[in-house]
Each structure stands twice: as structure tokens, then as C-alpha cells.
Amino acid sequence: MTSHKLRKVDVIFSPYSVAPYKILKDTMQRDKNEVIQELIDSGLRGRGGAGFPTGLKWKFAAAEKSDIKYIICNADEGEPGTFKDRKLLVEVPRKVFSGMAICAWVTGSTKGYIYLRREYRYLIPKLKEELALYEKHAKEFDLDFSIEIFLGAGAYVCGEETALIESMEGKRGEPRNKPPYPIQDGFLGKPTIVNNVETFASSTMVFRYGAKEYIKLGTDDQHGSKLFSISGDSPKEGVYELELGMRLDEFAEEFGDGDTKAVQVGGVAGFCIPRKNFKDTIIGEGNTTGGSTMIFNSTRSMYNVLHNYLEFYAEESCGQCTPCRVGTQQLLKGIEAVKNGTKPPQYLDNLIKLSETMKLTSKCGLGQSVTNSFSSIVNNFREEILF
Amino acid sequence: MTDKVTLTIDGQNVTVDKGMSILDAAKQIDVRIPTLCHHEDLCVAGNCRICVVEQKGKNTLTPSCATPAEPGMEIETSTPKVRKARKDIMALLVSEHNTQCTTCYRSTNCELQDLAAEYNIDNDIYISVVKPDLNIDKSSWSIEKDDSKCIRCQRCVRTCAELQHVNALAVTERGKDMRVSTFMHLPMNEIVCTNCGQCITHCPTGALTERRYYDKIWDAIDDPDKHVVINTAPSVRVALGEMLGYEVGTRVTGKMVTALKKMGFDSVLDTDFSADLTIIEEANELLVRLKKAFVTKEEVALPMITSCSPGWVKFIEHMYPEHLAHLSTCKSPQQMFGALTKTYYAEKKGIDPSKIVSVAGMPCAAKKYEANRPEMRDSGFMDVDAGLTTREIGHMIKQAGIDFLELEDSNFDSIMGESTGAGVIFGATGGVMEAALRTAYFVITGRPVPFNDLNITPVRGLEGIKEATIKFEDCLPEYSFLEGVEAKFGIAHGLINARQIMDQIVEGKSPFVFIEIMACPGGCIGGGGQPIPTNDEIRKKRIAAIYEEDMNKPIRMSHENPEIVAIYEDYLEKPLGEKSHHLLHTKYRKRKRY
């Protein structure tokens, strides 16, 4: 593991020093394979949380044969504690659209959608203005790729790409069985690339600076810069762009209120790191990269924190698969029972095992990731759960 | 050309067609993987997760029903990881389930119970999360819905959508509140439901069951003042044995009759009799329509469509209310039987019809609704007092302590107990068509239908939509207008196929003159009241038994049934006559699409 000193950088949020549509235009002069290779070389991974290598996704999609391919920008920003995509769409939408357009150009797609979280619908007028500008440029560059906004209906699980696609098709937002993956069989049965807002914006910046420059940021495992939505017991709540690979102790020092007890890294789907492990934790390595970081100080009851998470999960599970639907309820009822004494403390161990079963058997990332926060809180703050 | 893939399951190489699931590949080498949400009739769901297996190179477990076999896959189906996960999933399902198995109708015929027993689930592992506020919906005449027993496998939802295209049941809410419900959570009797009962036969547990009437029937049997008559449908005799220790596809007609008599029914009669009667009325109705179309050039609804299947009838009333004229006005055999029981039978036997309790033993859930239709009171009473499913009859035989396997055969009582092979084949898809053609062709030409042994094979089998063409030559003078006509006949089973047939009619593109439609896949032998499970393999065996029964009948054309000849001579006078119209025909009503 390598780490860096915490460093605020200005890549994604830099003002338009070079117009994003110029980046698009310049990129379109290059060889498509070379462009994909550059993205692979940059080490850019999906910024939504799962961290799949973006260049590979584009490469696979480009290789698919189909009369139509779709590109979906996942702006269903639903992970508790994250709000960076909103800021991106407000401040640098052209980088996002440009990234989508480059993706469309290399993969041969003609239709794009922005799956916008319903709570962000107030952004639509501004986004439409920006889209009109984009369309103008696309026409100028002779690029046959249009972008439309699709409003989600507010389910957390619809951030999962196949549930998102289901919901766009007018069905219940439930994750699909994989395989087939959306790259083969996505929206309306056609090859579909779903990337996070930040992923598209970052890919534009990869082409702006080149993979060689971009890869200089970050560590051996995680490259580039990343937006962090920082909330909780912090005097500096907000969105920050940081180089990947800083240690959590530095992070807590910079953003905490001096009394930081734990940091939830990667939203409720991520891990809760206690102070004693801050020094050994490098943000971005081994953790999800969604960018939600919630800071808890010593006044917070970790039982309440966990209870809150589990209530959220028990509500937001789509309910189709057994481990997630019933498992989330069992974890919630289980910690309540241990707290009020109707189940013995050892019951917590059963629950941790259950959460591991959920990780092994749940259909999608939602149920699979419950164990992250659950085990990390129960293992590190056991006495708070019990007493 | 089909591509093949070779993979390893539990160390054994297995080569299967590309696209086949790991689950089915495992079946080929007799490796059993437990399932719950999986059903052969339905699309893959992959939501119960009980079928997980370990796949080399993957951190998470793989749902074997939802994952296609890939070349070189290495699958282990019984590792500690897999067993522990399956047990955990079972425990979770049990924690969400109303586990009062002793009071459950599906006890001993429940997939959840079987697996829970296999994995020896301790009720105490997890806290019960059964929702306390769930009431049993008993509003429908046909179907009871008990959400406390639902395991959310969505088999009913997929059945209603994929097989029937009715979509009465759907998933609502999410997370802990997720459940299978109806439009606006309305009670089952207020929604667009055909009562076909396919959801029941596809339910792995007791969440969906038919509304049971057998206690009412026992009361009637026990009442010395009541004369209790039962008529049993053709498909009951080829399926009932499955509940009582026989192999699938065993004909138990004689034993069934003996058992029903032992139980105390005063008269055990044969629905096949009224099936034969239906054929006479329906064939004549068709000929009248054809005459109007060909000779007098009157406006008449063609193609004519059969009306024996009450699920289908309710379907067309809801979905195609503007096209009800296509339906034959004939009542179903059950309702003809009921109307005659309290008139003709009562008169012949000298029994006060108010003392008669008329029971129908049916493969069907929708028959219960049909019996309760307000228009089905042409005898002056409720024509059919209760419809029992094959399953209920099986239960009653057990309740009576009858050792079914040891019973001697006996014959149906008389009158209305005589039937032909044509009446028998009503039980299988294509059967009504075949029976009608045997008679219609004879009426038109004076000769038997030109197929070997009267077996009109094009109308048989499990293909969703079938068709047959028959050319009428050397017609009798009365039917000379049909001379040389090549008539097309259509058969559909499963309401999704019925919809295709109807859409053709709506577009004015139907090539048929006469169509048989059955609501349930396979026809009545696959009915919503039949023993569980039902799948294509079982349907085929039951169908084979039906045709066996047909071949064994001395008379195989409805119009040759001596009791049919007699009833027209003694009572009805002539097909489509005044009495027929009063007792054997009915009207339909337009219903709302939503």
C-alpha cells in the first residue's frame, strides 16, 4: 500500500481552462482504439462506488454489435451522505456531457440519458439550457449522439445499474440477474453503458491531460482525483476534490472537529472506521470509491448510527431477494433485541454471520454491502450496541 | 446448430446446450439443487436464492437457476459455504412465514415445508418478522390469499403475467413491506381476475389456495333430507390418483366413483354426459351461425368461440367486452349439468328439486365463481350449489378414511351418467374441438370425420395455438352450402394465447370459423384445481390418460350417447329448442378492463 499526504486538487472542478467541447472535438480526431487504451491506462475506475475499470467497460461495449447502443449517466445520487454529483451537474455539466459524448463516439452509441434523481429536478431548466448548447456543438462536430433527461422516482436501489434500467423501462426498480450485463443486454435489451456522473467528468479530464499525467495522481491501486462529500461532525462540510490515497488520520484531522470517533467511508454501503484504525486506513484502497464520508464525533451513539442505517436498508431493499429483504429486517430487529435484552450478547455473532450470508447470496450490491457497515460497527463498537 | 458447453459440477464433466442454466445442467447428472422461486413453466426470477452454488473464482455464491452454464465453469453444489448459506436463507424465509403448518391446507404438499424439514430449521434462529396485520383475503368465490404464508417468490405474479396475461397480482411496496398484492390493494373479488387458479397451482406454499367448500358438502351429505348429487369432470379422473398414491397419469375413474358413493353421495354422475350435450348444442349453434353467414347472409359473429372454460369467459368479459357475441351461448358442461339436475333429473327421479344439493367435482377454481354467477339459476334454484376442486375431493376421500388403493371399480349412476369418448376428451386442450368436429362433420355429411379412429391429431398437443383444416365434401342436402368449404379451426390454451386469438379477431384477421379456448395451459387437465405440482411433463401424462380413456369407450361420438338421444326425445325435444334455450344457454356481461 502506498499513501500520499492529503492534497486538495483541482482537476474535475477546475474552471473550464480548456472548453470541454474542445476536448471532445480534439479527442474525436484520434483513433478510437487509442482513446480507449488511454482511458484504460489512466486507471480510472467507476466513481459510483463499485469501482469497475471504466476503460474496460467502454472497450467491451465498443466490441458489442448492435443497431443501437445506449449511454446512461447515473445521476441517481442516493447513497446517504453523498452530494457531489449534484455539484458537478451544477458547476461543470459540460465536462459530464463531453465525457458521455466521447463514450458515445468510441462505442458507437447514438442515444444518451441522464437518469436524474427526482429530488434534483430543480436542476432541469439549467441542464436543458446546457444540453441545448451541447447539441449545438454535437451538430457542429457531426456527432450523432443526443442526450435526454430521465427522472427517477426516488428508490435507493435504482442507483444499481440494472434496477435503474428496469425503472427506465417503466418496470419496478429491481436489479436483474447478471449475466447478462448491461453492456450486452441493457436498456430495451440493447448494449448499454451506465457510468456515474463523476466518471464521465473524470474521463473528460483524462483526455484533457492524458493518461500519463492523470495516473500521477493517486496510488498504485487508485488513480486520479476523487470528489468527497463530507458531512457529519465536521466544521467544513461540503464537496472536496482530493487526490486519492490519503490516510484517514490526516483526513480526520483536516475535516473533523477534533473529536472524531469514527468515519463512515463510502456511504452506508461502505465501512465504518474507528479512530484506532485511522492510521492504517488509506481512503480509496480496499474501500469503495463512492466518496461519501460521514464523520462522527464522541457524542454520537454508534447504536443509533447503525440502527439508522439498518432502518434505511430495511426500507430501501427492493424486497425481491430473500437475504436482503429478510436479512435487513433481522439485523434491525436483532440489534434491538440485543439492546433490550431479549437476545443475549452472543446473538450479535449470529447476526454478523447472517450479514456474511447476505454478502454471499444477495442479488445485487445493496444486500451484498450491508455487512460492510454492519460488521465494522458491531466489531468496533460492540459495547455501544450492547449497553 | 446448437452450441454445446462443457462444465464441471461436483467434479463431474457435463456437456449441455449453450444457454442452459447451471440448475438444469446439474439435473442432467442427477445432482439435485433445491429451488423455490423456480418453476418450469415460468421465466427465471433468481430471487429466493436457495439454489446458490459455489463457482470457482467467484467470491459470492452463484444462483444456479439464473446463471447460464459457461465453458470451463467449476461448480460445487454442496460445500460448507453453500450448505450454510442455504440453511440461513431457509431460516430467513421461515422467520417471515406463518409457520402454523398443522392448520395449513397445503401441509405435506408445500415446497417450503419440505425444504425446512430437510434443513431442519429451528424456529428460534431468527426473530419472527411475520406482519401481524395481514388478513386472509376470502372475498373471492374461488381464490383465498393469505399473505402470512407468502414467501415472495413471485411465481404467482409471473404466472398471471406470462401464462395468463391478466396481471391481477403484482409486487407492491419495497423492502420489509414488499408483498404480492392487487391493483390498489383491492380485495380479490373486486379486481380483474379470471379465477383460473393458475396462481394456486404455481404457489409453492399455502399463500394462495382455492376457497374450500367441502365442509358444506359434508353437512349436506349428513343431512338425511338432502339428496346430494355429484358430477365429476373428465380431467378429475386422470389426476385425482396423484393425491392418493398413484403415479401421474393413472386413470382412477372406477375407484373415484366407488369412493364418492362410499362417502355418501346419493348419486355419482358424469360431467361427460353434459359435455356430450354441450357438443350437440354447440355444434348446432355453429351450424346455425354458418347458415346465417352463408345462406341468409345475416350479420352473425364468426368465428364462434367455445364457452366451457369459466376462466376464459371472465377473461373475454373483462378484456374484450365488445366481442362477446363470438362466444357460444352454451353454458359450460358444469352449468348444464346443474340446471338439468334440478329439473330433468328431479322430474325423472321424482325428487323435490329444493332438496337436491348439486355438487360439481372440477379441475378448476373458476368453476366456483361460475356456480355463483347470479344468472346460473335457470332451474329456479342455484343450479350448482358448490364446485369442488380435484384437490378438495382428494382431501375428502382422505377425511372419509377410505383406502383408495384398495377400492373396487364401479360405474357412474344413472341417469346422466352415460358418456362417450368425445365427452372425455373435453379434459385436454383441443378436446372440445375434436369432439365437436366428430359430431359436426357427421351432421353435415352423414359420415364420420375422416381421421384414423376418429383421432383428429392436429388439434392435440401442448402447442399454445393449434389449427386444423377440414374440407366438407359430399354434404347432406341440408348443408349443401358448405360443399367444398375448407374450414379452419383454431385451438388456444393459456390466456396469453387466447389474447393472440382475440387480437386477430379484433383486427378482423381471424382465419377461423370455430375456436376452442381453455384458460389453463394444457386445458382442464392443467386446471387451477388440479393436484400440485403441474408442469408440462405432468400435463402430457394426464393428457395421455385422457386419450386412453377415450379409446377405451365403446361410443366416441357425442350424438351417439344413448342418454343424450333419450334426453332429447323425453325432455329437451330438439337442440337449440325452447327448453334448451332456457336451461342450457346463457348470456354474458361486459366487464371493466380495470
State the order of secondary-structure elements of chain A, H for helix, E for strand.
Answer: HHHEHHEHEHEHHEEHEEEHHHHH
Which consecutive residue ranges of chain B, at least 5 long each, have pLDDT under 50? none
The 3D shape of chain B can be described as globular
Fourth-level CATH superfamily of the largest domain in chain A:
NADH-ubiquinone oxidoreductase 51kDa subunit
The radius of gyration of chain A is 21 Å
Q: Counting H and I runs of at least 4 residues, what is the number of helices of chain A?
A: 15
Tertiary shape of chain A = globular
Write the CATH fold name of the largest domain in chain B: Rossmann fold
Overall helicity of chain B:
25-40%
Mean pLDDT of chain A comes to: 94
Text of the CATH class of the largest domain in chain B: Alpha Beta
Strand order in the largest sheet of chain B = 2-1-5-3-4
- Kindly estimate the percentage of residues of chain A that lie in beta strands according to DSSP: 5-15%
CATH architecture classification name of the largest domain in chain B: 3-Layer(aba) Sandwich
